[in-house]
């Protein structure tokens, strides 16, 4: 609802701006035409018997310009635009707190690690000059090995974007064992792209030779895909008009290019998404909740900076959930090795410490907080996420 109101206000301001700009241009054009007409009259060839009365022309021009009242015409639309801008600014201030420092919490960061994260972020994005600048300014980092690996990755990906698969094929062959260990058939997919290119642009004999040499070793693990590729041989040179034309779709190249980037990072022991990007994106999503919390607690004259745990949950999207966690619905504590989640006979789940409190340290039965069922500590089983 808030975003809808802001968008409507923005659309109104944009409409006012266009009207103001259009009106201003119209007035300027009108003034320009009068001036050009006066100049043309003055510069027109005249005989000695009929000289141009320049003073009269300028007087007439002045009269016409006064009749246009350009300033008055410009003032109206400009005032309306300024009024809309003022209202829009107030609306933004209402919904968006310009001072986000209230949600800031003093944390002692390790400068070495922070510099490393920033430099790694730029290397991951392929911005090697920026990464080098960070390292040179920090003066204490040595990310040469990581830099070389990300440079190799970007060279492979850039080559794939121009339909050059040789670097990718070389990398896949060199890392075949590691890819098999993580259950990836990426090397087969890369060979598939190359095979389709051979089928379309080469001869049937060339395609068959390529299939025997590079696809056959993967056939037993990719039987359906292998059979489909063999069917392509019947349409060598005319694959675009065959039942297998979908294999030529650029979408295959895009998906396999992205998958190669992901698997490259996996084998490198790095996440595909930059940790810095993820942290910033998560912070932006959680910022409204933190600002609201800071304002509420400030009004109650309470300090939230020293709290070990936030009194309200900060909801983030599924893209920020990297592993399963459990928060006890009674104590609001997050499950841990010392305080694991426990399954009650009624199938409700509480943390171990909550169960111990309810059972008076296992001395009696207790009632589940969420249903009438009773249980003992011995009846509860630990859950593993």
UniProtKB/TrEMBL annotation:
First-listed, main subcellular location of the protein, grouped into a coarse class: cytoplasm
InterPro entries associated with the record: CRA_dom, CTLH/CRA, CTLH_C, Fyv10_fam, LisH, Rmd5_dRing, ZF_RING_GID, Znf-RING_euk
Biological process, per Gene Ontology: proteasome-mediated ubiquitin-dependent protein catabolic process
Biological classification of the source: Eukaryota, Viridiplantae, Streptophyta, Embryophyta, Tracheophyta
Signal peptide: none
Name by which UniProt lists this protein: RING-Gid-type domain-containing protein
Record's subcellular location: Cytoplasm
The RING-Gid-type domain, residue ranges: 328-371
GO molecular function, a single term: ubiquitin protein ligase activity
Chain intervals annotated as zinc finger (RING-Gid-type): 328-371
Keyword Ligase: no
Pfam families for the chain: CTLH (PF10607), zf-RING_UBOX (PF13445)
Taxonomic source organism: Arachis hypogaea
Record field: transmembrane: none
Keyword Metal-binding: yes
SMART domains reported in the protein's UniProt record: CRA (SM00757), CTLH (SM00668), RING (SM00184)
Swiss-Prot/TrEMBL keywords: Cytoplasm, Metal-binding, Zinc, Zinc-finger
Record-level GO cellular component terms: cytoplasm; GID complex; nucleus
Domain CTLH: 149-206
